[in-house]
Amino acid sequence: MYSSAIQSVPVETVYVGVLADAVYQFAREGILQKVAEEKCKEQLLLGEDVTAQFIKGAELLEKLLFGRKSMKYLIVNADDFGFSEGVNQGILKAHRDGMVTGTTVMVNLPLAAHIVEAVAQYPRLGVGIHLNITYGKPVLSVSEVSSLVNEQGEFLRPGVGADRVRPAEVAAEWRAQLALFRSWGLKPTHLDSHHHVHTWPGLRDLTAQLAAELSIPVRFTDPLTREALVSKGVPVTDFFIGDFYGDRATTGYLLNILRGLTPGVTELMCHPAVVDDQLTAKSSYTWPRNTELESLTSPEVNNLARGQGIQLTTYADLAGLNR
């Protein structure tokens, strides 16, 4: 059952004169570090050096044989890149100095193109598209998306005129946003949306279709959306955390989130920023973004993540984790 997997791992690391069956069993049970060491000593009476190698072998086999099921992977995605200079600065700082692993870009906004320079500077930053029909002006002309805009040619705000939205126009606009993103020489790691509009019942299938065409994952925020995406073969994470927001955007709450992570792949949504005039003038969510930035770059938070064995990753790695 597992002989081929064992053969692919260096013998000197894994097979040190003890039964491979025992290593396999410990890996299957998720027994690592001190627990593994105690069992090794108790049941196999190994010496200190051999025990250490045994534990390393169990860890490697656990990853190899059981993939994400027994490991804690965390995607920390910062939404709204392009909203303002302060938002862009905050996201990049949270990536450079903290635990943010990816961002999603509001492609239709003037400052969104700064992502090209950001990717060149921070090549490990995962970059997806924040599909948008609720803020700013469309990529397409007003005449092409008349059901989506107001008299000033700007997208309707959430909850305003949602019943008049024509799905065909949403499809055209989102394809235009995808095309603009790709024209910058970038390939999106995944899709999500501003105000979670991609989870609207009338837009779920469209989102799944776009993701399937690009062979990329999509964020889910609720069970119905997850079911709709999975049914169409679209990759998703195991879990989604969206309440690190507002009054809960504190270091203490983030520490609790990390302590409570379960094995599998989790996405944590966040909105860090250096609050500036444009943000305060145009967004209803402002000063808590500063607190988010402080929390995401907190040494206590990042040390806990390492201490808990949490593997920070991006949506670009999801296919490999989803074994």
SSE map:
Elements: H1 3-7, H2 11-14, H3 20-28, H4 33-44, H5 48-66, E1 72-81, H6 85-96, E2 102-105, H7 115-121, E3 126-131, H8 167-183, E4 191-193, H9 204-214, H10 223-231, E5 239-241, H11 251-259, E6 264-270, H12 277-282, H13 288-296, H14 299-307, E7 311-313, H15 318-321
Parallel strand pairs: 1-2, 1-6, 1-7, 2-3, 3-4, 5-6
Helix pairs in contact: 3-5, 4-5, 6-13, 11-14
Kindly describe this structure.
This protein has 323 residues and is an alpha/beta fold. Helices cover 44% and strands 11% of the residues. The chain has helices spanning 3-7, 11-14, 20-28, 33-44, 48-66, 85-96, 115-121, 167-183, 204-214, 223-231, 251-259, 277-282, 288-296, 299-307, 318-321, and strands at 72-81, 102-105, 126-131, 191-193, 239-241, 264-270, 311-313. Strand 3 (126-131), helix 8 and strand 4 (191-193) form a beta-alpha-beta unit. Helix 3 (20-28) crosses helix 5, helix 4 packs across helix 5 (48-66) and helix 11 (251-259) runs parallel beside helix 14. The longest helix has 19 residues, at 48-66.
